Structure prediction request, 459 residues.
Amino acid sequence: MTTEGRRAPGPRGIPLLGSLPQWKARTAEFLLQTQRDHGEISRLQLGPVTVHLVTEPDAVGRVLKDNSSNYVRGTLYEQFRTVMGDGLLTTDGELWRSHRRTMQPVFLRGAVAAIGPNVVQATQEMLDGWEEKARLGQPVDLVTETLRLTLVTLSRSLFGYDIRPQSRVLKEVVDNVIEVMFKHGTVSEMLPEWMPTKRNRLIKRDRQIFTRLVEEIRRQHADTGEGALMALIEAAKDPVTGRGWTDEQVRDEMLTLYLAGHETTAVALCWTLVSILLNPSVQEELDAELEQVLGGRIPEPGELDSLPYTCNVVDEALRLYPPIWIYPRDTVAADELGGYHIPAKSSVLLSPLASHRNPRYWDNPEAFDPRRFTPEAVKSRPRMAYIPFGAGARMCIGNLMALMELRMMVAMINQRFRLSLVPGNFLRYGDSSISLRPVTEVLAIPSSRTSGRTAERVA
Ligand code: HEM
Prediction:
């Protein structure tokens, strides 16, 4: 492979810091501006670090699939590691492969359909709580509600565990974890782990909370046998030692799944609901489809294919607001992407947010339009122009589960309630954070659907 390519264009930045100030101030806007000004492969200087932002679809395909062995987890994933330990998200090589193989069966299509009743139950519990708010004309915070909903669903579905009594504590832990993982460049981050800095105390406390939780879930599984993934994990054998996973390995994988699986899905659901209520024509078309196909019944996972518009609404929300909106890789050897030289041991940044708003593939990219996902429209675009779940071997293990949950939840919420945003809501995203979570709460007032039928309840 030749690595003679040219130097990629990019913003000039200022001496020593390069573009770091803009990056820190408004990361999302800076990325979009860079793509507009310098194209689909650009070179950013962030302090001492050189990073290439890559959104050109063939180049994205090369990084994630065709030459993926040259693009490994890197510096940012080290940050994750201090908190999550060695789980699917942070490891490479044989350890990753064998753990992924062990857990994959629970995330295949047939197995995912089996968690439908958990999705229905958790969504109904949330919506039952909204009845009182609707009666009093009071708002719900969509961020808090969706986080709780997806946490409860994930915990029951994968681990057979009812996490409701601990959901408040866990929310706090997750918020801390995100804060810790994304506090870059502070002095405290550079001090060794054993020093009692505020950051290190928080990490230790959060890991202890998770360790206790995992112990309780495992005890319960031993008694009841509940939890499809728990059963696979407990039966797993390490390919090298032939022994079961260590307690630390079990904890790290469970922690990874709790963290990677619920916040992402919640963020997607929150933006989907906001997008629907900001676009009355979408709301109308969605209502019409739900009424025509379901007539008030709760959907089964197996019939989601007969709700194409509902599916496309979710697809479009994942385009405009991809929960994992940036993720990096580090190069092993030098490479060439789109004719540009990518040095060895440098970072490459993929950004679903920038890819999904690239005007070359998306007309009027800022507009919310589910029609972009009709089968014909999808065929007309390069596959790698749309990467909410990544691609290749490291594609999100939970993508089918997330899509099923989102489609069911969107259908059920819209069957029972109308939402209206409380005026003055501040719909901002894109600070340096793990997900594209709205920066503040999103308050919406639910009102029960008076016209049309109310979705049936499961006893
Ligand atoms: C809308 C919801 C979700 C989105 C947008 C999302 C997005 C992503 C993306 C982009 C990656 C690839 C990261 C990379 O290549 O560096 C990823 C990986 C991963 N996701 Fe998701 N995810 C979602 C839901 C879930 C769920 C429900 C689970 C599990 C219950 C999950 C577990 C994971 C894990 C374990 C990985 C690492 C996979 C590996 O490297 O083998 N995610 N996710």
User: Anything to note?
Assistant: Residues 184-195, 451-459 have pLDDT under 50 and may be disordered. The two ends are 62 Å apart (CA to CA).
